[in-house]
Request: fold
Amino acid sequence: MLRRAKISIIGGGNVGASCAVWAAAKELGDIVVVDIPEMEGVVKGKMLDLSECGPVERFDARILGTCDYAEIAGSDVIVITAGLPRKPGMSRDDLIQTNVKIVKGVSENIRQHAPDSVVIVVSNPLDAMVYTAWKTTGFPTQRVVGQAGCLDVARYRTFIAWELGVSVEDVQALLLGGHGDDMVPLPRYTSVHGIPVAQLLSEAQIQACVDRAKVGGGEIVKMMGTSAYYAPASGVVQMVEAIVKDKKRILPCAAYCDQEFKVGGYFVGVPCLLGASGVEKVIQIKLDDQEQRLMAESVGHVKTLVDVVRTTFPDLA
Reply:
């Protein structure tokens, strides 16, 4: 009998609930959403509500809302969305003290109840939270990965498509570095159905799309008063699908790099081959001097955040 994949999502707020909706709609597997005891009724109600969409949206899945971590046992993939969202005037980095504690506690439960899972981290500041989850779980580096690049590239592709008036499906792009304002979109690796974007847009137009992608999260925070959730969840589920279906997709993710891109042992955004075992390979690409400089600056910021984690929480050093 074919076994259905099991996907657990930690945090039943806007991002977590949206992840559950996308995963159910794509019929990727059974879904468990875990939230804090104070939110038990809410998360159970949300997941019951989602379950009742099955006959209309034509998906079969066991969908459970709970506050009991024992329910994540046997998970193939676990998505960590738990943590405080951004508010207007805050950077992702402002969340670090509180969210390290939250992600650390979540990761301890994952280590206990789902020791064979692949973990995808969404909580901010992303690159430092992936490091926290890795250190706490003790999992191999290929089984801990961060979702950022899929979201950032989706924003970048959207803006390029709007500028050209073409389908978003025909825009392909790549992005490196940390998840923040110093991320590194790569216009040289951006194309529209194989046509280099530099042949279709001016340098100023391309740079405007790059700049908007860099601050894409902050733009939405200013509008809504809280962090985005539909697009982040969509990026997560793209990764989940690649893992549970062993698709071998090449996607931009926050993966552990040592010699790769001269990173030196940190989780940063790079092109990854995602399959059943998680990050099966980091794809090396050639960077010109300017791209390498920007990548080094972005990695430097990631290192600063991780140093804060190590200093504040010596057991994670």
Observations:
- The CA atoms of residues 130 and 146 lie 6 Å apart.
- The chain has two domains: 6-146, 149-308.
- The domain at 6-146 is CATH 3.40.50.720 (Rossmann fold).
